[in-house]
Design a protein that fits this description.
- The chain is built from two helices and eight strands.
- The protein is α/β, with parallel strands linked by helices and about 90 residues long.
């Protein structure tokens, strides 16, 4: 792995996880998103659309529902969020 480019897996491909994963991919880093089936299928099929004041881009990325997909990736990120629906921290 070169110093400028990291391989990162983001566990929790919801809104926050997709933001981090998409920004990492946009910056040229390799990796993927690990999340629920519906999100994984959508990301694999259509990618992510990022729109902001400085950019409007379509980002393709790898997505999976299983943690095993991250076994060959060096760094892992797990955004910690609160699930209002369940009234507890999401796991």
């Amino acid at each position: 792995m070169d110093a400028e480019r990291a391989r990162v897996a983001v566990f929790g491909a919801g809104a926050v996880g997709c933001f981090y994963g998409g920004m990492l991919a946009r910056a040229g880093h390799d990796g993927g998103l690990i999340g629920r089936r519906a999100h994984g299928e959508g990301i694999r099929g259509a990618g992510l659309h990022f729109e902001g004041p400085q950019f409007d881009e379509h980002i393709r990325g790898a997505a999976s529902t299983g943690a095993g997909a991250a076994s060959s990736i060096g760094r892992r990120v797990r955004p910690k969020t609160f699930s209002a629906r369940k009234g507890r921290e999401a796991t």
